[in-house]
Amino acid sequence: MNRHSYDFRLVDREELKKERQDARRRIMQAAALGADIDSVDLALSRGLTVREREDSILSDAWVFIALLILVVGLLDGRNPALIALGAVMLIVLGVGAVWKNLALVGVLYRRTFNRTHVFPDEPVEMTITVSNNKRLPITWLRFKDSLPVAPDSRNILDRPIGDTYNAYILLNSYSMHAHEEVQRTFTLRFPKRGFFQLGPVTYQSGDIFTLFRVEREYSYYDTIVVYPEIHPLEELGLPAKEPFGDLKVRRSLFTDPIKTRGIRDYQPQDRFRDVHWKATARRGELQTKIYDPSTGMTLGIFLNVATMPKHWMGFFPEVMERAVSVAASLASYGSEQGWGIGLYANGSFPNSDQPIRVPPGRATQQLTHVLEALAAVTEFATASIEGMMLRESPNLPWIATAVLVTAVVTDETMVALLRLQEAGRRVVLISLADEPPPDDLGFMLTYHLPPDSFPATQSSESRATANQPEIAGIKLQ
Fold first, then answer.
1. Pair (306, 426) in one structural domain
2. Closest CA to 142 of 58, 214, 219
3. How many CB atoms lie within 10 A of CB 44?
4. Which residues constitute the domain of residue 79?
5. Considering the entire predicted model, what is its pTM?
6. What is the pLDDT of residue 252?
7. pLDDT confidence of 31, banded at 50, 70, 90?
8. Which contiguous run of DSSP H or E holds residue 124?
9. What mean pLDDT do residues 399-422 have?
10. How many whole angstroms separate alpha carbon 296 and alpha carbon 298?
11. In terms of domains, do 12 and 43 share one?
12. 3-state SS, residue 434
């Protein structure tokens, strides 16, 4: 009866960490010198071996049996049959053991993507490259790659073999010659926003006789960022023009301290920090900077991830996703208008308890930063949204408009908004609750977006027609 023996060996993490650092140093040195990069070093630099397992259909007793048969054949009048049998058994066991130890040496598994930042349901082309960088061929080689979604594949042999808790195992098998490289391409589609992690990956191989097998698991991870859905403001029920009120008068009341138009003589009401010291030194009299009127607007978006008045009541995933989509649409609109946009959410990044903060800015990649933060938002509220608004509003420019996107409007929230309005802040409330917000809010601008008014999720085909990947000037990576 065949007996399976298993040998589990945990690898020393500190030792592997040092090997990985050494491999990275050699890669940098080779790149600086223009030399070829060793594929083994590249493999070491991409991930650590977190587990190794070896097993065989033969037990250790077979070596003793082969030696016993060989000795009996020599003692029994040099019996050629027994001698041949014992020698063949020893050769097979020796070749199999050596082949098994060399099977995964120089083997490289690499994922590449045509883009790593997409919108929901958009295709991501994942190319898997497998290289055998040694002279020894590999009779069989298998990879198990953990994926968050099932890949689109017409080949039934490449379909995932397992699906548990939205985790899929992509199984790929190979038989490779010496110094051979093979590529396979798969299409992934992520149905909702979020940060999706691919990995770890497990290598499996063995000897030519399939007597021994070695299995290694590598902490080789890649991340795909899926942005939230973006809709035109008119589809959300918001005005397409000036959704936050008339800004023409407000713009002329402020100046942009970055844009200097000229200088003039100092006047008693001028601020000391506006003095132009170089011009003062040249003319011998105090000179003051003259600034251009501010032509831009700053939009501070506050997102409340809570969908119930109390955290212990639970949450509604669909309502939270609508709130995230509204915040993303506002950020996209602000970026199109050339405004400074920022995001504050009382949700947290995955595996973190810190609230999300993206300070306002007009940089080219500002919308990308905001959408990445929205993609990472979880339903866990780290603080109350009203406390966050009162705490963060002093850090916003005075001409900024604070927009609160929330699915639940409490008395505490209304008190915080009225306090900000009384302090001279421009405040806008966008409510996604079933009931409209109160009417006695003075001059505060409010919008009510009930669930039945929210647009349906776009398919990937319609999004491609609308050219959404290039919305607001953002280019997917």
1. yes
2. 214
3. 22
4. 5-102
5. 0.75
6. 42
7. low
8. strand 123-132
9. 91
10. 7
11. yes
12. coil
For residues 461 and 322, state if they share a domain: yes
* Cβ partners under 8 Å of residue 80, min gap 6: 73
The pLDDT value given to residue 225: 95
What angle, rounded to 10 degrees, do the helices at 411-422 and 385-392 form? 20
Name the residue among 355, 336, 335, 334 with its Cα closest to residue 345: 355
Report the pLDDT value the prediction gives residue 261, as an integer from 0 to 100. 64
Domain check: are 237 and 285 in the same one? no
For 106, other C-beta atoms within 10 Å of its C-beta total: 19
Tens of pLDDT, residues 46-97: 555 667 888 888 877 888 888 888 888 888 767 888 888 888 888 988 998 9
Q: Closest Cα to residue 403, out of 300, 311, 250?
A: 300
- DSSP string computed for 180-210: EEEEEEEEEE--S-EEEEE--EEEEEE-TTS
How many other CB atoms are there within 10 angstroms of residue 309's CB atom?
12
Contact yes or no for 360/396 (Cβ under 8 A)? yes
Whether 237 and 354 map to the same domain: the answer is yes
* The pLDDT value given to residue 45: 58
How far apart (Å, rounded) are the C-alpha atoms in residues 221 and 12? 20
Angle at 20 between CA 477 and CA 219, to 5 degrees: 60
Number of domains in the chain: 4
With cut-offs at 50, 70 and 90, classify the pLDDT of residue 430.
very high
3-state helix, strand, coil in the chain (%, to 5): 35, 30, 35
* Half-sphere exposure in the Cβ direction for 166 (13 Å, CA): 8
Q: What is the pLDDT of residues 362-385, one digit of tens each?
A: 888 999 999 999 999 988 888 899
Q: Which of 70, 102, 134 is a domain's end point?
A: 102
